[in-house]
Design brief:
Keywords: Hydrolase, Membrane, Protease, Transmembrane, Transmembrane helix. By secondary structure, this protein is α+β, with helices and mostly antiparallel strands. Helices cover 57% and strands 21% of the residues. The strands form three sheets. Strands 6, 7, 8 and 9 form a four-stranded antiparallel sheet that branches. α3 crosses α5 and α6 packs across α7.
Length: 282
């Protein structure tokens, strides 16, 4: 092999190495920052092949996609002085790679900053509301407020907070029993009120029924007295008519009827001078 060919191959290899060191590829999910001696030279957000000065320039790449940061559960105090353990997470992305690199440097440092700011706003916003409001549908509005506040605070770091959500909001273990007892007492109170209302309504119904029964009984007794009076009047009239037709028979029939009443209770002692017993003696 001649010296010229060897030189050509060496030059070709060196050129390839220099070219490969001068080129870098930015993926569609990435953005790149080119540094020269620690100073930001260029920012590339479009995907493709880009060039840099070999051995001098350094390339730092960051995600363009939305990132998830799971914040550690923290205790907060609500407006009604209840303690909650809130487990939140933040969705965020790097919108200005130059500003992000100048201020945050790394993802881990950015997440630490996000943690401080988001937790601070969650604590302050939730502290203005009661426990019942936080666990209700209103929580969506509270989290939107937290998101907007955190987004404003982190904008100067090249970060956009897309959303802040709550995975879980629980009472501390020491408070769960107390809340359970309070809820049980409230249910007992409601049940007692319902029973009292039921008893009151039952007494009202019974009183009304007794009133109606008394009225009906009085009306029945009045009607019975009327019927009885009518019957007695009819009997008297019949007796009078019978007496008028045959006084002797009527007197005999009345005496026999009296015997039924006299003798039904046992033995009766009587004398000859008693007019009522004349039909027995004679």
């Amino acid at each position: 092999m001649s010296a010229k060919l060897i030189s050509f191959i060496v030059i070709l290899i060196v050129a390839f190495i220099i070219l490969s060191l001068s080129m870098f590829v930015v993926d569609q999910t990435e953005q790149a920052v080119v540094l020269r001696f620690g100073q930001i030279l260029n920012v590339y957000q479009t995907p493709g092949i880009h060039f840099k000065m070999p051995l001098i320039d350094n390339v730092v790449k960051f995600e363009k996609r939305i990132l998830l940061y799971d914040i550690e559960p923290e205790k907060i105090i609500t407006e009604d002085k209840k303690t909650l353990i809130v487990d939140t997470y933040a969705l965020w992305k790097i919108v200005d790679a130059k500003k992000f690199l100048e201020t945050m440097k790394t993802i881990s440092l950015a997440e630490s900053r996000i943690d401080d700011i988001v937790y601070s706003h969650v604590r302050n916003v939730f502290a203005k509301h009661t426990f019942d409001e936080i666990i209700s549908d209103k929580r969506e509005n509270f989290l939107n407020e937290v998101t907007n506040l955190a987004r404003g605070d982190l904008a100067n770091f090249g970060i956009e907070v897309v959303d802040v959500r709550v995975k879980q909001a629980d009472l501390p273990n020491e408070n769960v029993r107390a809340v359970y007892e309070r809820m049980k007492a409230e249910r007992y109170s409601i049940a007692a009120q319902i029973r009292a209302d039921g008893q009151k309504e039952a007494q009202k119904i019974r009183a009304e029924a007794e009133k109606k029964a008394t009225v009906i009984l009085a009306q029945a007794q009045s009607e019975a007295e009327k019927i009885k009076g009518t019957g007695e009047a009819s009997a008297t009239r019949i007796y009078a008519l019978a007496y008028q037709k045959d006084p002797e028979f009527f007197e005999f029939w009345r005496t026999i009827s009296a015997y039924n009443s006299i003798f039904k209770d046992g033995t009766v002692i009587f004398g000859n001078d008693l007019e009522i017993f004349k039909y027995i003696i004679h």
